[in-house]
Amino acid sequence: MYSRILEKKLINLSQKYPVVTMTGPRQSGKTTLVKAAFPDMPYASLEAPDVLEHAGADPRGFLGQFKDGVILDEIQRLPELLSYIQTIVDEKHRNGMFILTGSQQLLMLDRVSQSLAGRTALLRLLPLSLEELSANNIMPGTPAETLLTGGYPRIYDQSLEPAEWHANYTATYVERDVRSIKNIGDLSLFTRFLRLCAGRSGQMLNMSEIGNECGITHNTVKSWLSVLEASSIVFLLQPHFKNFNKRVVKSPKLYFLDTGLLCYLLNLRSADAITVSPFKGHIFETFVVSEIVKHFCNRGEPAPVYFWRDKTGHEIDCLIDMNAELVPIEIKSGETIVPDFFKHITFWQKLSGESGRGFLVYGGESAQERGTVSVVPWREMERIFLRQ
């Protein structure tokens, strides 16, 4: 098993809450993590037909087997259990009784918030972060190889070919989950929609444009995007609405949470293909933004990340709201630093009056200081959070 940053937070919260609920995409390592964190705790997966049948037919008897608590995997398969869990934790008043995991937030979080409000802590486990790849000594050698491979643990654990694994993942998990959440009859149409979204990762979201190209309505685009968000396949980066006396863009940007899956959907099958791809810049930006999101998720915190763009074309790729201080981050895939890289961040610093440092994350290997901007190599992004 690979060490995961979230394990410390998971154990800590289990000592403070009777229930801890962990969501995240399929195959991100949820089951492996909870088993490692609680090796002596009984485990039951509701993916197993016999377990699901037993729990559904006799929920009290099923839960009664586990006097001291249990890990329940894929709880979204039987959300009715949550009401029975509520009764148990209210009776026993003991922390760390139930560890719940689920891969379909759309199906479970509403039920969790209704039944277990005030009784559960919520965590989200995403694929391996750059920090975790480094800590486990499994870092790919180049930026392009890192983008191509992505962060799903099984690829590294079994030394699998990324494209082959992502093809199977798309068929067995993404499409299956979609079908279980939404009644989508034409999966080929959804696959086209998924690939169109991939072509727009790192760009402003235009639902009408996607709908027109895919031949579906605006409402269908909105519905299908909600499924991808709920399955932790994509996320929408919201604009920062503070208006510095300029008209600002108010549409979100679309990002995939794993660049390996993104590259597969873009038909990029090798590191060399990424290097010459017109999508390279958007893929690299997706990588950096997703790493920033992972940093916060891995510590059990909401990700206070935004972007900023005005109507004249000035843009900050990512803004992190750190204790009321806005930290601007510019993202460039190039390996050579040129003066043009700094123009947007310099403009924003003057406009906003923010006195803190900005950061430029790029595809090179050398850290530098350029006036009010720290230049951060792609593999050392944790410098942003160390503020150095």
Outline the structure in words:
The structure is a single chain. With 388 residues, the protein is α/β, with parallel strands linked by helices. It has 18 helices and 14 strands. The protein has helices at 6-14, 30-37, 49-57, 59-64, 81-92, 105-115, 130-135, 143-149, 153-157, 162-181, 187-198, 207-214, 218-230, 259-265, 271-275, 280-297, 343-352, 383-386; strands at residues 19-23, 43-45, 70-73, 98-102, 120-124, 203-204, 234-237, 253-256, 305-309, 315-322, 325-332, 358-362, 368-370, 373-377. The strands form 3 sheets. A 6-stranded mixed sheet has the order 9-10-11-12-14-13, with helices on both faces. Strands 2-3-4-1-5 form a 5-stranded parallel sheet, with helices on both faces. Helix 8 packs across helix 14 (259-265). It is globular and about 65 Å long. The model has no long low-confidence stretch (mean pLDDT 91).
Q: What's the short version?
A:
It contains 18 helices and 14 strands. By secondary structure, it is of the alpha/beta class.
Write the layout of secondary structure elements.
Layout: H1 6-14, E1 19-23, H2 30-37, E2 43-45, H3 49-57, H4 59-64, E3 70-73, H5 81-92, E4 98-102, H6 105-115, E5 120-124, H7 130-135, H8 143-149, H9 153-157, H10 162-181, H11 187-198, E6 203-204, H12 207-214, H13 218-230, E7 234-237, E8 253-256, H14 259-265, H15 271-275, H16 280-297, E9 305-309, E10 315-322, E11 325-332, H17 343-352, E12 358-362, E13 368-370, E14 373-377, H18 383-386
Parallel strand pairs: 1-4, 1-5, 2-3, 3-4, 11-12, 12-14
Antiparallel strand pairs: 6-8, 7-8, 9-10, 10-11, 13-14
Helix pairs in contact: 8-14, 10-14, 11-12, 12-13
